[in-house]
Amino acid sequence: MRSYLSGLILLTLAAPAAAQDRETPYWASIRADVANMRVGPSENFPIDWVYKRKGLPVKVVRVMEGWRLVVDQDGAQGWFYAPLLSPDRAAVIVGKGLAAIRAEPDSNSALRWNAEPGVIGKLGDCQQGWCEFDAGGRKGWVDAERLWGDGDP
Q1: Architecture in CATH for domain 22-88
Q2: pTM over 0.90
Q3: Alpha helices of the chain — where are they, by DSSP H?
Q4: CATH class given for the domain over 91-148
Q5: Which residues, other chains included, contact 111 with Cβ-Cβ below 8 Å and sequence gap of 6+?
Q6: Domain ranges of the chain
Q7: How far apart are the first and last CA of the chain?
Q8: Residues sharing a CB contact under 8 Å with residue 131, sequence separation 6 or more, in sequence order
Q9: Long-range pairs of 10-19 with CB within 8 A, sequence gap ≥ 24
Q10: What's the helix, strand, coil split of the chain in %, to 5?
Q11: Signal peptide: which range, if any (predicted)?
Q12: What's the pLDDT tens digit per position in 17-38?
């Protein structure tokens, strides 16, 4: 019984780490309120950037043990400790001017609201150049060209 429990405990602890091992590149989002991007895959490496935007989308381009090499929307690249990232898809509004958030995936659909560049939201389904976007409970469809974090990484 004791060896069974020991094995079960080891399997339980290993499962979250194994779930993070995915084929790169892939999209993720920042899970923590504050997350450090380091210049190398260890806490021994200096911090290059400090992110204070929970939910911000990032592209994971390399996996090394418990660390992920990521690229952000501005092209900054560095290493995050894997538990700081979530597999939940997110996107950020990019481009100039307000982005129309529509009721349906169509430019002639009713306008629900406008979002400024930099607004972060949960990303839903994408179809025919439009993506479902949920920013703090305000939902609608946005032209995919106005998003960073959608499509194939």
Answers
A1: Roll (2.30)
A2: no
A3: 2-19
A4: mainly beta
A5: 100, 101, 102, 103
A6: 22-88, 91-148
A7: 46
A8: 91, 123, 124, 125, 141, 142, 144, 147, 150
A9: 17/66, 17/82
A10: 15, 45, 40
A11: 1-19
A12: 444 567 999 999 999 999 999 9
**Peptide linkage before 46 cis (omega within 30 of 0):** no
Residue appearing with tokens 């418990």: 66
Q: Which amino acid is at 59?
A: K
Q: d(Cα 6, Cα 54) in Å, to the nearest integer? A: 36
What per-residue confidence (pLDDT) applies to 152? 87
Alpha-carbon torsion angle 6, 10, 12, 18, nearest 10: -160
The owner of tokens 């790169």 is 24
- Residues 6 or more apart from 36 whose CB is under 8 A from it? 47, 49, 50, 51, 80, 81, 84
**148, 121 in Cβ contact below 8 A?**
no
Residue 117 has pLDDT above 60, yes or no: yes
Largest CA distance in the chain: 65
